[in-house]
Hints:
Number of strands: 2
Mean pLDDT: 83
Shape: globular
Number of helices: 12
Structural class: mainly alpha
Low-confidence stretches: 143-163, 165-176
Radius of gyration: 25 Å
Oligomer: single chain
Largest sheet: 2 strands, antiparallel
Order of helices and strands: HEEHHHHHHHHHHH
Distance between the termini: 41 Å
Amino acid sequence: MAFANRISDLARTLAQYPTFVTVMDNKVDVRTKEQLATLSAETAKLEALAAEGDTAIANGTCKDPAGLSSRLDFNASQISSLLTAFAAQDSERLKSMSIISKQKFDAYAKNRLGAEKRFSDEVSTLLSQEAKAVAELAKSESGKPDAKPDTKPDAGTESPSTPKPEDRVKPPPSKIPSVQDTISALPGYLRATIPEIVKKYDDAALSTQSKSYADAAIKLGVNSSEAVRSYVVLVFTFGPDFLSSTTKITWVNDIINNPQLGTIDQRILILRNAVEMRRKLDLPILDAA
């Protein structure tokens, strides 16, 4: 399957839905020009990422299948996070509408918003599928011998150097980092990802604190390396209470405590994407609303 082409097809289908409605003779945007530009840019970024996966799958090889698979999986929730950020913008943008006008707007906008939800779900499914397909490349590559052995003996004799099947050296399996490997590598990752935030820590303190936060993530139920990294980055950036199950930040609570959004790993990744979207859209992050 050409995943990038499929995402492009889905985007063209979504574009057929009107982006404004008329309420009591007034034109009201369902999606503003700025929101549409942001959605278009994110879609283009995901298409480019999917194209990387398409190339790797078509070639049957990839320089870093684990890394590409992780990026595909991480970005699977990107459109969903963007739509969540849009909803926060819309709530503020439309709060001056009367109750009756808002009810009419909701009814008229239902088709467009429903199409966006389907688009988000299908893109997420595609990228998750592609992530799994790319991850399989690591397994298939690890089973390829460097060269085909010549096991044909000389006529009438058997070469003493001909290896028996059980003696042939098996290629080592592809090394995929474990969660513990990820925890050990956290200090370097944090210094590269959020240097300004962790610069006050020396190496020993950063190692201790990052391990403490990673242990908290695992205690919460996080299983994947990417989710552990995301959890630790968020806690270093916004403090331990940010990801508390009793957080008073409404939009964070709506994600972290909503099992319908997936596993805790998926919710952590959605939350990190949502933070990035709110930054891009100049929406508050630590406000209770």
